[in-house]
TrEMBL record:
Homodimer. Catalyzes the first step in hexosamine metabolism, converting fructose-6P into glucosamine-6P using glutamine as a nitrogen source. The keyword Hydrolase does not apply. It catalyses: D-fructose 6-phosphate + L-glutamine = D-glucosamine 6-phosphate + L-glutamate. The keyword Transferase applies. The gene is glmS. Keywords: Aminotransferase, Cytoplasm, Glutamine amidotransferase, Repeat, Transferase. This is Glutamine--fructose-6-phosphate aminotransferase [isomerizing]. Transmembrane segments: none annotated. Residues 46-185, 218-359 form the SIS domain. The chain holds residues 247 to 615 of 615 of the full protein. Its EC number is 2.6.1.16. It comes from the Bacteria. It is found in: Cytoplasm.
Length: 369
């Protein structure tokens, strides 16, 4: 056990720190940035199906569903294909409209999630092409899907998913870029810039991990909180959901993720001096709007923990704590902003003496329906 943890106190921490190398493993051999090539057998062999798709339906659960939500933004943005993201457990039990020209993308770390598997079977029965994004090689979902791509994140032991999430986003971004290039919906220049930027992501994650000590200090302040709100917009709305899920599952603190602009439609009523609010306020992506959300929280005495772009000064003046991440393209910000949120939950759970790797009531793969 100690050897497998490679000196880390928990698998979750090890897996958080593995993200730079896990992401490199995800794109290694697939993305040749200097030659402007993205190759993935599962996509290349079925390119027409992707290009002719009237829409993409993503089916997944939990953290994998959050990766699907990020994919919705990136596919619509770069490849101009409409995307619907469905909880597998809802999709399978209603009577969904599935067409033969739909491409269904099933995302699952374990490749064993029962509801995701049932959604795949339903999609196949209705004639859709089903593509899997799994981490576990040879898993049931990877065998049931027509084609797919493995994330190659390596074994994820901690029940709270970390590197699976960022590697899922990596692979989905590569697919969106590949389709965008093939469809001509992104310019050649942008395509090349994205590939070059993707290569820089592992080192930018390393940089984000350097905030660990500072995050421990912030975690000490909020470890006894009863509730926590997470806000983000656009690409970082799913990151807010993911941050809240991480805190809930390992520290048992009640947390909610919300699109920042929805705050005024309800959650703002919860804000007082007892309420920590984690706001993702990176420079790209409706920055001004998020800044005004921060002002609204401040005027109600909420405590603000802001994830900002390196060098930011405006939010720094308003927030109680800021955690910096490097600048990157808006579409790739989730790969960086997720990191401090993982560390924040991890440290709070450790400080509260919780079983971080095996939280109560949770299993690594949910094979029950
Ligand atoms: C995330 O931290 C979870 N423990 C959980 O939500 C998980 O993402 C979900 O059960 C889906 O699992 P899968 O990716 O293996 O299908």
């Amino acid at each position: 056990d100690q050897i497998e943890k490679a000196g880390y106190e928990h698998f979750m921490l090890k897996e958080i720190y593995e993200q730079p190398s896990a992401i490199k493993d995800t794109y290694r051999g697939r993305m040749l940035a200097d030659r402007g090539i993205i190759r993935m057998a599962g996509v290349d062999d079925n390119l027409e199906k992707f290009l002719n798709a009237k829409r993409i339906i993503v089916v997944a659960c939990g953290t994998s569903w959050h990766a699907g939500l990020v994919a919705e933004y990136i596919f619509e943005d770069l490849a101009r294909i409409p995307v619907e993201v469905e909880y597998a457990s809802e999709f399978r039990y209603r009577n969904p409209v599935i067409n033969k020209d739909d491409v269904v993308i099933a995302i699952s770390q374990s490749g064993e999630t029962a509801d995701t598997m049932a959604a795949i079977k339903l999609a196949k029965e209705n004639g859709a092409f089903v593509f899997g994004v799994c981490n576990v090689v040879g898993s049931s979902i990877s065998r049931e899907t027509h084609a797919g791509a493995y994330t190659h994140a390596g074994p994820e032991i901690g029940v709270a998913s970390t590197k699976a999430f960022t590697t899922q986003i990596t692979i989905l971004s590569l697919i969106a870029l590949k389709l965008g290039k093939a469809k001509g919906s992104i310019s050649n220049t942008d395509y090349h810039m994205y590939l070059n930027e993707m290569e820089l992501i592992p080192s930018k994650i390393e940089k984000a991990l350097e905030s660990n000590k500072h995050i421990i200090e912030v975690a000490k302040v909020y470890k006894n909180a009863k509730n926590c709100l997470y806000l983000g917009r656009g690409y970082n709305f799913p990151v807010a959901l993911e941050g809240a899920l991480k805190l809930k599952e390992i520290s048992y603190i009640h947390a909610e993720g919300y699109p920042a602009a929805e705050m005024k439609h309800g959650p703002i009523a919860l804000i007082d001096e007892q309420m920590p609010v984690v706001v993702i306020a990176t420079k790209k992506g409706h920055y001004e709007k998020v800044v005004s959300n921060i002002q609204e929280i401040k005027s109600r005495k909420g405590k603000i923990i802001a994830i900002v772009t390196e060098g930011d000064t405006s939010v720094k003046n308003m927030a109680d704590h800021v955690i910096e991440v490097s600048e990157t393209f808006e579409a790739l910000t989730p790969l960086l902003t997720t990191i401090p949120l993982q560390l924040f939950s991890y440290h709070i759970a450790v400080m509260l003496g919780k079983n971080v790797d095996q939280p109560r009531n949770l299993a690594k793969s949910v094979t029950v329906e």
